Amino acid sequence: MTLDVAWAQRWARESAAAIAAAKDELVELDRQIGDGDHGENLNRGFQAVVLKLDLIPDAPPLIGDVLKTVATTLMSSVGGASGPLYGTAFLRAAKVSGLAELDAHAVVALLEGALEGITARGKAQVGEKTMVDAWSPAVDAAVLAADAGASPEDVLVAAESAAAAGAEATIALVATKGRASYLGERSIGHKDPGAASSVILLQAAVRACGAPA
C-alpha cells in the first residue's frame, strides 16, 4: 500500500469514523479528570473534516494539502484545548508533508511535525499526563523502525503500538498540565483522554494503509 494523497484522505475519514465510535468512551475519560467534552468536541471536528473533504471535487496533489484541510477545519470547529492542539499538530505535519507519497523517513517527519505542533501549543513534556505521553514514544518508535529499514506502513504500526503503551502509562501519572492538574494525585488511576484519542488517530492511520491496527 502506497502512502499517498488517497491514503491521507482515507486517514482523515477513518479518524472521523473511529472518533465517532469512541465518542462516549472519550467523554467518560474526560469526565473523570477534565470537563467531559473531549469526545463531543473531537467528533464534531472530524465530522466537519469529512464534510469539507466531500466538498473537494478532485483529490489535491499533495499529502500536505489534505493535512492542512484537517488542521484548519479542526481549529475552526473544535472547542476546548483539543482543537488548537490537534489543529497545530496537523498543520505542522502538513508543512513537512508537501509530497505526493511518503517513504519511511517522511512518515517520521510527519509524526515529528505533529509532536512539535502539540508541544509548541501545549507546552507539555513527557510525564505530565497529556497527549505528549502518546506522541513522544510514537515518534521514538517510528525513528527506530525507519532507521532499521522498515516500510512506511510498518513505521506507522510501530508508532501506533508505542503510542498505545504510552497512553496506558498515563494511568499511573499525576497530571501537571491542563484542567486535570487541578486534581493533583486524584488524577492517578485515570487514562489521559488526549493520549487515548491520539492512539485512535494513529490506529486510523494504520487502517488507512490496509494494515490491521
UniProtKB/TrEMBL annotation:
Q: Which domain of life is it from?
A: Bacteria
Lineage, broadest ranks: Bacteria, Bacillati, Actinomycetota, Actinomycetes, Micrococcales
Q: What name appears for this protein in its UniProt entry?
A: Dihydroxyacetone kinase DhaL subunit
List, in alphabetical order, the GO biological process terms annotated in this UniProt record.
glycerol catabolic process
One GO molecular-function annotation for this sequence?
A: glycerone kinase activity
The segment(s) forming the DhaL domain are: 6-207
Q: Which InterPro entries match?
A: DhaK_L_YcgS (IPR012737), DhaL_dom (IPR004007), DhaL_dom_sf (IPR036117), Dihydroxyacetone_Kinase (IPR050861)
Naturally occurring in which organism (per UniProt): Sanguibacter gelidistatuariae
Which keywords appear in this protein's UniProt record, sorted alphabetically? Kinase, Transferase
Task: Give the matching Pfam families.
Answer: Dak2
Q: Which GO terms describe its cellular component?
A: cytosol
